[in-house]
Amino acid sequence: MKPVSSPVSESDLGPRLAATASAIERLLERLLGTAPAEGEIARPERLVAAMRHGALAGGKRLRPFLTVETAGFFGVPREQALRAGAAVELLHCYSLVHDDLPAMDDDDLRRGRPTVHKAFDEATAILAGDALLTLAFDVLADPATHESGAVRAALVRALARASGLGGMVGGQMFDLAAEGRFEEARGALGEAEIRRLQAMKTGALLAASVEIGARLGGADAAALAALDAYGRALGATFQIADDILDVEADAAQMGKATAKDAEKGKATLIGALGLDGAKRERDRLSEAAVAALAGFGPEAEVLRAAARFAAQRKS
């Protein structure tokens, strides 16, 4: 399917982000209801409450926004695009619930509220993360997301590859190793290793958010390649910006604890390039993301704006 022209300006980004976030919130509310879905036996109330705490009422919803916007300029019906975006967001929220656990990053705040293990308990938080993860694939595999089983399989595979062993989870393992958690893995990481870690831990899911929208819309090989380059550059931009905010922003601004990267010995490009060098690299990557969309017309302007937003955001 070829892109559908729908000209927008960069000033549209804020309202469109907000509109998509609101639509995703409403869909997540429905998906995380207490009534069992077809084939389920029962939904434990405490588990549902913990899942809702971890997934609702917070965040910019950038990942589902990328999915919805990419799908939109390939002419995908909005309800289908929102379902795919909700699946991406459910998986992202699972990762946050587990990342916040004492065994991982040990955070007390997320989006200005107590993390799930603080609001409930550690066992419930682990199960809530597990359930959010599996629900993500449930949503993608549902015919309501796309009538073609082959397309749904491609969406499932894209999300699994981005979030699993060779993607986000593998990146988290590299991150723990970089903190010196394991005797056999001690030693500072070089710049190339840091880039690999960040491409897996953060970049892979952001890139998959774009890919899923494109595959939902039947994008051809050339469009998929261009959007993959865009998504990977965007993911790297986002992570460097996050590292910079950890140094420069305060907890109230971010809705979570800051200045933790250096304290925990986390591997970041600030350590490898210095703060000014990291800022230059953030901006270079943002422009590389924009350049990757050169083959598209005005229908991709919001994606271009998203790349600049990733570099300029303040929280």
UniProtKB/TrEMBL annotation:
Keyword terms: Isoprene biosynthesis, Magnesium, Metal-binding, Transferase
Cofactors named for this entry: Mg(2+)
NCBIfam families in UniProt: FPPsyn (NF045485)
Domain of life, source organism: Bacteria
SUPFAM superfamilies: Terpenoid synthases (SSF48576)
Family: Belongs to the FPP/GGPP synthase family.
Short name of one Pfam family: polyprenyl_synt
Annotated protein name in UniProt: Polyprenyl synthetase family protein
Native source organism of the sequence: Bosea minatitlanensis
InterPro entries: Isoprenoid_synthase_dom_sf, Polyprenyl_synt, Polyprenyl_synt_CS, Prenyl_diphosphate_synthase
